[in-house]
């Protein structure tokens, strides 16, 4: 493609309302144009990227034996009423009436339509399993569309649905999709993690999210660099310390710590590390009995985990008045010693249980206790996993230590089991002629979101740094003086033809612009490889090469251009 | 692809409400499944056809230098208000409010969105021309969706929009698109005609429809087999006869023709051909003066042409009472002789003016005149093109004689000129720095409609006969006894691998069915080439071949399978 025949439209500045890097860069590079809130036109340059993502997804899905079809965007309300989602789904579901006043939705997802197809088409276990997928524009009426294509209203998804005779076959397909998704994101050239999206336990997990790793991601992920383990921080299990609790060595002392209500201040004042100070959080479960949660002062409470403990569902934090009334001290000075266990429940994080000779509030305002030991100074607490994991925690799979990162969810695989099949009566006859409800899986990839996520992961001060697999062009040829120097033009065109002949996706920038503008544009739109054809170089028989991430350009003999680039492209 | 891993789902009978052949066959062959009125799921088999159509359209549009982009389906009402179509468009335009009560439409077309993009992006004549296109699902809320994908509500279009500095450049692009569309429909393997959609005059036509020729088409087309001329029958000009009117030879006679009011009866009774009998049609223009239209009895009135004659816009047919009151005779007996030209206007079709010694009604009920001659027996009438063309009429381009056929509109190219650009203020600075409104063209192809049209054009009693370029598979291998005979299986798999290795799109029917069922399915879904691998043939070292349109199968040496098929595929 020649730039003059293409449509490059870059901006010096991103629009003021663009909030994150990918949104700013996609608008600046002219990949997309805004049409309405959360609604964009994909310009030719952006569509090239989108199509490369699509092609890789399609190839891998086909290879995995899934069959592509195309369901309508417009879906009749009847199907959503049958599944029960007509009532359950919020205002994100765009509903409308056609000219005959019949109710329809613009599908944000297609479980109902595909289950309707399958219940009509499949009668026997012999026709199972099947896995259908589509790549399609969807609409979700987000209350606050933002971040460009990352949280748009109209977006492109790959959504797949598999149907099975029995749970074991669903598990097999789920495993295959886990693998297929890993291939896809690897081929896309993205750093990613498959994150267990429910309990984080290994095996039998019914849901995984695939996250592109990026500092600006919305989700915190705990992962093990030495294994495949990854989970949302909220769900990652903090294991009990492996070493047993040391025997008590210090005696219990009550120390005045006036005004030292914050943990850091108290530890500092007491001259102990945060890890030896226990903080006490008072909560009120729905049925009203005050409960104390004990955590090391260097850890943070994980409210999701706490809410899952028997009796604590729907808890709230106790007020200062409630705490003072029941414990006789203000919040910064409370602790487990001396409380009436008949009236107050005490639950300690596993890591607290491993401590001896620790410090905590004294249940007297302005005082702490030091040298505290469970069993000796107060009864043993209940134990639970109450905290968020921290870097260096042992990985729950026993294969190393955890690290933390942020991620952008770009894929999700999910064992739906029989929810939709049951509601819509999607059944098959098994080998013994019995009617059975099908097991279902669903598998989504945010095609348009991937483009944004790739840019969040790959950008610098000059612009986008696309992975080679999805860059709009693989190579940019920038001639210096195309319109003034016949030799430069001839060499640029020769190289262009030569590269295209071997299937390289190349952009020849034949615009009559200053070199700096052309370099800036090629950097901004994220072309991985750049060749400069200049008069001076040609005199020596050389061309100049610079990779998008390289600090410096280098020169090479013009006669070896094809081989030189082939070697670079192989490294992508 | 192996049938066992694909999803074939054919039906013996089409649903009772399927009205036309393509709809019946698409449902029977399992290309589509109905989701709601005019809304379908494209099953894997149908999607293969759709994608082949898409790929050819995309390739040719790219080759013509058009740039693909992707606009959103959802469009803000503001743009439609700016263009004025928010009010003008009927209930086919699906309007909805989002959760913030803002008005949107689901785009049935994208003139507004693309004009908005271009007015923001393009400032100078140096950036023109540009031609953007997209391939996308659209929605039109038809009052009565019917004929399957031929008149559905959700459908897939290629829509392109070009922008120009000046009308001449629009004309250039329009000509290029005329050519490009011709390439596309030729490559699709369809018999088609480009039909002038306005006056049918040659040169400067601002609109052409591309029709796939099919008996079941909704449009009547007149075309010249010896040239490119084609027009809707309503618009095709009937030229004046080239030979001058012969001199009068017979004398005027008044003949009793009791009860012979119908033309055929009167001509028969008078012993003359229909072509020498003139029928007289009485109409009332809006301003009230009775007008007589004279046509040869073997011709039919073209009301569109009549309505374009000065003074006749909005005419209606005169009632029997009006005719009797003004002419003194009943409708079957009226004619031009003896009428008061001060009160009655008389307009003859050009072919009537070429007659001498003709017959017509006598303006006396139950009587005709014979040997009538203009100039001698009554004043010369006004002349006009009043009739529909008939086969054998001279082609308006002077290059042969017209034939008639029926067509299905699958493409449309249109010179929009400045309508939208003016309304939306889409301007550029010309070479002299003056602000000018852009000229626009638009170019549509009904991607999903083409699949239906191809089937209307290509089907027989066994099912679909797809053109090779868009058949879901090019070749079907049908093994007889795949599950019982190792040799048959091995040979079938070997042939499958061999064909796939050279890029042939092949389906191996490895289902455990009776041969008759497999043959019937392969015929129904329209695979152009079928190879049968049977035990008996293998004993002689032969395979059996049958083209989809062939009456008889033939055998050929198994060792020459690849070459044999290559030769057949080359003929496609």
Defining traits:
alpha+beta, about 575 residues, 16 helices, YbaK protein, homodimer, BirA Bifunctional Protein, domain 2, Rossmann fold, five-stranded mixed beta sheet
Summarize the structure.
Chain A has 572 residues and is of the alpha+beta class. Helix content of chain A is 27%, strand content 27%. Chains A and B meet through strand 1, strand 2, helix 2, strand 3 and strand 4 of A and strand 1, strand 2, helix 2, strand 3 and strand 4 of B.
Q: What characterizes the major β-sheet of chain A?
A: 9 strands, mixed
Largest interface: A-B, 49 and 49 residues
Q: What is the CA-atom radius of gyration of chain A, in angstroms?
A: 30 Å
CATH architecture descriptor name of the largest domain in chain A: 2-Layer Sandwich
SS summary, helix count of chain A: 16
Shape of chain A: globular
Report what the structure shows:
2 copies of one chain form a homodimer. Chain A has 572 residues and is of the alpha+beta class. The first copy, chain A, folds into 3 domains: 3-191 and 200-210 and 414-454, BirA Bifunctional Protein, domain 2, CATH 3.30.930; 253-384, YbaK protein, CATH 3.90.960.10; 473-570, Anticodon-binding domain (Rossmann fold, 3-Layer(aba) Sandwich). In chain A, helix 2 (44-63) packs antiparallel against helix 6 (167-187) and helix 2 packs across helix 12 (447-457). The model of chain A is unreliable at 199-204 (pLDDT under 50). At the A-B interface, strand 1, strand 2, helix 2, strand 3 and strand 4 of A face strand 1, strand 2, helix 2, strand 3 and strand 4 of B.
